């Protein structure tokens, strides 16, 4: 049967929140493992850090920062929605959190040189 | 659905929301730190200098690690339940293992960096 | 040709089936229900569909039109048939009986499971309950009681798609109106009925229900209220 039309802002907000959450959960063990290298193989850790000082890696890291900011702002929106009195302008909050996440990523990228 | 199952589900949901609030603070601090640290390029010494021997940073990262170990697995549990045909028991096992992994790695990293620098 | 006819693809069959395409003369102020009725009367009498009031008060004509669940009697063809094409499917998340007709038993069963029926404790000898319309709880209840059980929100909810046991927006919305009815005596049993992952905690606030409700109700807000009430009750040890 035909697929459902899901083209409304709060659906995209849900999707962004879920996908960013999965991406962060997948990244987390890798991140913590790399940090752990500092204890056991400090040269490997230092090497990894300097290896990451390339444009491609910085770009990918920016992506991660955007995911993190998106998950955070989307999550705060959800907490407001669930625990505070309902406000009809909550769709605006979707746009706000979207904008904030992108800004955060940009700030990171601009500082990463 | 038994009353105790309802209580467990409600507690897990609530724990995820509470850990979300804690993580909101941690993540804002973390992103601010990243942006500051990445200026002029990232370096291992810089990280070790900042956290080594500093009990405040240790405390911060311990709170961070514990909160993530609570928050992420509960979220993954929901996604696995909705998107996969896995049984509840299998899902509980997988997310519990993930929680332990994240907790162990996180605490290890926090204490590790703390012990590497300063004195 | 493009302007004076519309091409209508309709699901035929049950869970197994296929689309059948019809050409329908385009008329001014035509609704999708007009189109379906035309097909059944003039072209293909084997087409099965539901309607009753045809003026937007009963909800019987609900079906999926170009991917959105809506009341066909209140859907103008000119608003939805971009490029002169319509695709009609039965409502989702309910078993298909035939063509555009679904078995709504699952929808009403969930209503009952969520304790969506009022239970009073007064008798004819008691005084009438004095409830001000300004009372905040009454306003919460009034905001949700116009639901006529059409099933559009249930059909739109992705969580029901992923978890068939999820009670869904309509049942939970109804439970919320009754939680806010101070005359009702079964508050604890109702909170028990709507708690947990198959109850209010299953909602991810996607708000497809809010987007599509033909009565402009807000089940997501009602469910958020239920989340707060059930969590409070569990923390206080009231649910056991």
Topology readout:
The complex is a heterotrimer of chains A (113), B (119) and C (240).
Chain A: H1 9-40, H2 42-51, H3 55-83, H4 90-111
Helix pairs in contact in A: 1-2, 1-3, 3-4
Chain B: H1 3-37, H2 44-51, H3 55-83, H4 88-116
Chain C: E1 5-13, E2 17-25, H1 32-43, E3 62-65, E4 68-71, H2 77-80, E5 85-89, E6 96-98, E7 101-102, H3 105-113, H4 136-142, H5 152-156, H6 158-162, H7 169-179, H8 187-194, H9 208-212, H10 219-235
Parallel strand pairs in C: 1-5
Antiparallel strand pairs in C: 1-2, 3-4, 3-5, 6-7
Rg of chain C over CA atoms, rounded to whole Å, is: 20 Å
Q: How big a fraction of the residues of chain C is strand?
A: 15-25%
What pattern of helices and strands is seen along the backbone of chain C?
A: EEHEEHEEEHHHHHHHH
Stated plainly, the CATH topology of the largest domain in chain C is called: Fumarate Reductase Iron-sulfur Protein, Chain B, domain 2
- Read across the widest sheet of chain C, the strand sequence of neighbours is 2-1-5-3-4
- The overall average pLDDT of chain C, rounded, is 95
N to C succession of SSEs of chain A: HHHH
- Identify the CATH architecture of the largest domain in chain C: Orthogonal Bundle
Oligomer: heterotrimer
Number of helices of chain A: 4
The biggest beta sheet of chain A reads:
none
Principal-axes shape call of chain A: elongated
Query: Which structural class fits the helix and strand makeup of chain C?
Result: alpha+beta
Count of individual beta strands of chain C: 7
Radius of gyration of chain A: 18 Å
Low-confidence stretches of chain C: none
| Extended strand count of chain A | 0
**Structural class of the helix and strand makeup of chain A?**
mainly alpha
Please name the defining characteristics of this protein.
heterotrimer; A: 113 residues; mainly alpha; 82% helix; elongated; B: 119 residues
């Amino acid at each position: 049967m035909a697929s459902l039309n899901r083209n409304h802002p709060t659906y995209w907000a849900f999707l962004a929140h879920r996908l960013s959450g999965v991406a962060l959960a997948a990244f987390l063990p890798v991140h913590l493992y790399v940090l752990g290298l500092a204890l056991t193989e400090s040269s490997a850790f230092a090497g990894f850090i300097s290896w990451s000082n390339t444009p491609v890696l910085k770009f990918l890291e920016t992506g991660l920062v955007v995911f993190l900011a998106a998950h955070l702002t989307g999550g705060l929106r959800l907490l407001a929605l669930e625990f505070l009195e309902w406000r009809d302008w909550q769709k605006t909050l979707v746009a706000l959190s979207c904008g904030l996440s992108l800004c955060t990523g940009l700030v990171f990228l601009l500082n990463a040189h | 659905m038994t009353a105790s199952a309802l209580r467990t589900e409600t507690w897990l949901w609530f724990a995820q929301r509470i850990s979300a609030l804690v993580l909101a603070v941690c993540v804002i601090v973390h992103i601010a730190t990243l942006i500051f640290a990445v200026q002029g390029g990232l370096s291992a010494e810089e990280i070790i200098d900042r956290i080594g021997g500093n009990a405040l940073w240790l405390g911060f990262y311990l709170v961070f690690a514990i909160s993530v170990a609570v928050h992420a697995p509960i979220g993954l549990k929901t996604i696995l339940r909705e998107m996969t045909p896995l049984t509840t028991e299998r899902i509980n096992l997988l997310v519990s293992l993930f929680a332990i992994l994240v907790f162990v790695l996180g605490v290890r990293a926090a204490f590790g960096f703390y012990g590497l620098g300063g004195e | 040709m493009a302007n004076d006819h519309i091409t209508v693809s309709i699901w035929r069959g049950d869970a197994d089936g296929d689309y059948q395409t019809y050409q329908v003369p385009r008329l001014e102020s035509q609704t999708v229900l007009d189109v379906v009725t035309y097909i059944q009367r003039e072209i293909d009498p084997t087409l099965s569909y539901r309607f009753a009031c045809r003026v937007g008060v009963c909800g019987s004509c609900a079906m999926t039109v170009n991917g959105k669940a809506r009341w066909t009697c209140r859907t103008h063809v000119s608003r939805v048939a971009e490029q002169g094409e319509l695709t009609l499917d039965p409502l989702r998340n309910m078993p298909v009986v035939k063509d555009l007709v679904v078995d709504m038993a699952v929808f009403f069963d969930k209503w009952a499971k969520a304790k969506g029926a009022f239970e009073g404790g007064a008798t004819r000898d008691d005084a009438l309950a004095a409830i001000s319309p300004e009372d905040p709880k009454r306003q919460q209840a009034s905001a949700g009681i116009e639901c006529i059980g059409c099933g559009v929100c249930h059909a739109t909810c992705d969580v029901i798609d992923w978890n068939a046991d999820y009670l869904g927006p309509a049942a939970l919305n109804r439970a919320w109106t009754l939680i806010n009815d101070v005359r009702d005596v079964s508050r604890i049993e109702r909170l028990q009925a709507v708690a947990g992952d198959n109850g209010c905690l299953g909602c991810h606030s996607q708000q497809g229900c809010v987007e599509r409700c033909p009565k402009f109700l807000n089940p997501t807000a009602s469910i958020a209220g239920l989340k707060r009430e059930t969590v409070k009750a569990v923390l206080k040890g009231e649910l056991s």
